[in-house]
Please model this.
Amino acid sequence: MSFAINVCEGLPTADRGRVESSDGFNEFVAENSKRLLRAGWLLTGDAGLAEDLVQATLSKCWRRWVKISPHTRSAYVQRVLVTTWIAGRKRKWAGEIPSEIGDAQSPTSDALRAAELRIVLLAAMEPLAPRQRATLVLRYFLDLSEADTASALGCSIGSVKTHAARGLAALRSAPGLGLELLEGGTR
Amino acid sequence: MSDLEVRVHDLFEDLVPDPPHPIDVTAIRGQFEARHRRGRVLLPLVAVALVLAVVVVNVRFVHKGRTSRPATMTPPATTSIDYGGLVLTLEHPSDWHYTHAFDGSLGPSFEIGYMSAHVEVHRFVPQCTTTARTSKCTTGGPYVTSLPKGAVFISFHIANTLNRPTERPDQIVSGYPAYIEKATAGQCPRGSTSGLIVSIYAHAPGAIPPTRYLVFDFQACASTPGTVKALYAMVQTATLTTR
Model:
């Protein structure tokens, strides 16, 4: 009942010093956390869980930040995000309900329509297998190529194609969402 | 990309909400430091406790010989489990032994240790193998696949999350709301005759935002009828304090 990956062993003191001084980590978080949190929302279906997931992901990555090539950091973090989420789904604590509704806003017809579609979207994604859901997020939200998605998930490109096709088919056949996808446009 | 793929991409972009809070980099570094502090303090203490436990067990074995009494018949002992200054103290039969087993994960929920009696425990550390293209990791797997007669196995977890747990607390343990239920057969190792799942909820001291939940969560399984009474007694007399 723990996150399966254990990618980050303790760094030597010298490395930790380098991490703490300056390494681009803060800048990376500032630039990418919003996108990671949104991807986390797509995976978990909840803003609080997404925050927990991204924080756990960044904690794991930070400890070996200096060893990750700057060119591959984004892909590395995305891979840890997805594997952490997949492993975390095995926990008993995956079964939670949101404690609070988000900040109240004046409802407009557009906002209500978007909220309704969000619920439909999450309902459509919930029954997907974890790897199918992760594939959809990596391919169509984080815009990874099939090869990069395969690398992130630790599977073949053929498997990615299969996961994506099944995931897309599930979304297209989802009540309330299929029509939206066939017509295009959401707002 | 096909037309459908483009529309799914647009749908995601349009519908995924902006996050309510930015990620706090300081908190991430704080988690790392806290874990190292815990490790520096707890590991030597656990090592000393284990050595003492081994000595005590050996002395008792030499003087009294092996006993076949069930777990519930042994005199009580006390164990304190410390997580970041929050201390859970449990009174339990003295042949139940606690093992610190912090798994190194920094996720919202992770194991901190287990208590066992009369059962062989196999601990698996997750292993990762990385090639140029892929990275695969094994999961920990079950510590205990089956319980022999008279055995007890309890795993302790900490959850630190923004979300209120699904279960509604219906009891009070040491002044904190708690949820206690009997474990089902599927939740316990083979051979179990009874089990108990307990969650004790506490707000994380000084947590930001203040709605974070810190939860001691433990699952107990036993293979002797009647042991569940000892488990209930252990929960009812548990104390949760800060140091």
